[in-house]
Amino acid sequence: MAEQGNNGNGAASTQKPEGQVAIQAKIVNQYIKDLSFENPNVAKLIVSAGDQPTLKVEVNVGAQKMEDDLFETSIEFKATATNNIGTIYVIETVYAGLLKIESMPEGALEPFLLISAPAMIFPFLRRLVADVTREGGFPPLLLDPIDFGDLYRRRQQQRSQGTGRANA
User: Fold this and answer.
1) How far is residue 160 from each of residues 95, 112, 135, 137, 156, measured CA to CA in Å?
2) DSSP assignment letter at 8
3) Which position among 2, 3, 10, 125 has the lowest Cβ density within 10 Å, counted as fewest Cβ atoms?
4) Which residues are bridge partners to 59 per DSSP?
5) Which of 89, 101, 90, 110 is CA-nearest to residue 156?
6) Residues 101/71, Cβ–Cβ less than 8 Å
7) Using CA atoms, how far apart are residues 72 and 97, in angstroms rounded to an integer?
8) pLDDT, tens digit, for every residue of 129-139?
């Protein structure tokens, strides 16, 4: 049985029996690729807060190869809060991580990039969303954990049916 370890710097490796190469995955960098926050009805909201807001959240993940062993995983996130006054706010962001991955079997690469890698960078996206909504004058939007495995499975089902993207 393989043992997994984390050396404390965002790198994960798997120890293999002698003669086999260990899989290594390390986050090289994390960054905001795109960020937008809109507060289109601020004047109306100052006069009256309106009804309890409704929140619509959309999440999608993507990955691409950057170089030989460098891959980018990104989480596209959009949240729209509305009520009887109209749109309260819209936040859209793409948050990404650059990963160095060595010795990973080809069949394991896509699930890793679309399940494990987004799970590693999600806490930083969660903090970003909370900070931006708070700085926008609203209570912080605290995101619940996302099951990226379920998102990946739904995406695979939709691919096999020919319909495209899966949203959380």
Assistant:
1) 27, 20, 42, 43, 6
2) S
3) 3
4) 77
5) 110
6) yes
7) 6
8) 999 999 998 99
